[in-house]
Amino acid sequence: MKTEALMQSVRGRLGLGRLLPLGGPDDGTWITEQAAVRALWRKAAGVPGVRPESMRIGPVPHEPVLESAVRPPAGALPPGPLRIEAAFTGSVTLPVPQAAEQLRTTLLKAADEELGLSAVTVDLRVTDLHEGTEAGGGSQTAEDVMAPPARKATTRSSAPVTETEPLKGPIGELADVVSAVPGVARLTAPLGGHPVRVTHQDDPPARHIQVQLAVVPGCHPLEVARAVRNAVTVAATSDVRVPTTAAILITETTA
Fold first, then answer.
1. At 114, which helix (H) or strand (E)?
2. How far is residue 169's CA from residue 206's CA, in Å, rounded to a whole number?
3. Which sequence spans correspond to the domains of the chain?
4. Which of 92, 105, 130, 224 is the most buried (most CB within 10 A)?
5. Are 120 and 158 in contact (CB under 8 A)?
């Protein structure tokens, strides 16, 4: 039973893809690659003549990274420049270089303005040509465009915390604080465990909070995360002598 639970956890984590940094080293925020790809895929599918086939987001090789000001989630990428890799089919009636340049511009703008990802480059690959100039992703879903291994992994849903799974005590109070922040759709726990975790350090005394959540569609993920970090650190600081930090993981940006 323990082995099966572990395997489910591993498969679920693979389905989420990488944990990508949002903002800078002081923001203490990450987003799952799956959530970021979903958001960017919607933009890519709107480019005339472009049909996305696959997409991944990861670090730029050989580029320096920064140390986060807060403890990151396990396995999260450090703050630094990111690269978007995408494959698409182009239209036979539109110049491929023109479509590629529009797609590149669209992805970089959406990554920056709508998510807060520090994407600095987009590598594109044309896999085929199709008839027509209409935009769209064909019959594919957002999960389809995540290339293996993330696409083929069985994903665990970012299940909301329900009334049958109450969070009690101080953790429950912090969960209520998070849920009350504008832009928070719900608490989630795709990494397993509780969506709000608090760990303590004795020497020197310190407190760290990790929150997993979904963002309301149309709200800027990084701005919502900053508001959540401020709210939970204020709510958790009962003793000013014990510094409190918080890390936010955004697992969904759509309903």
1. none
2. 20
3. 26-130, 169-252
4. 224
5. no
Which tokens sit at 215? 């963002």
Q: Would you give per-residue pLDDT tens digits along the chain (255 residues)?
A: 444 343 344 444 558 999 999 999 999 999 999 999 999 999 999 999 999 999 999 999 999 999 999 999 999 999 999 999 999 999 999 999 999 999 999 999 999 999 999 999 999 999 999 886 666 654 455 555 565 444 443 344 444 443 335 555 788 999 999 999 999 999 999 887 889 999 988 778 889 999 999 999 999 999 999 999 999 999 987 766 788 999 999 999 864
Tally Cβ neighbours within 10 Å of residue 171.
15
Which residue, chain included where needed, has tokens 């450090």?
78
**Do the strands 206-215 and 244-252 form a parallel or antiparallel pair, or are they unpaired?**
parallel
What's the chain's length in residues? 255
Architecture of domain 26-130: 2-Layer Sandwich (3.30)
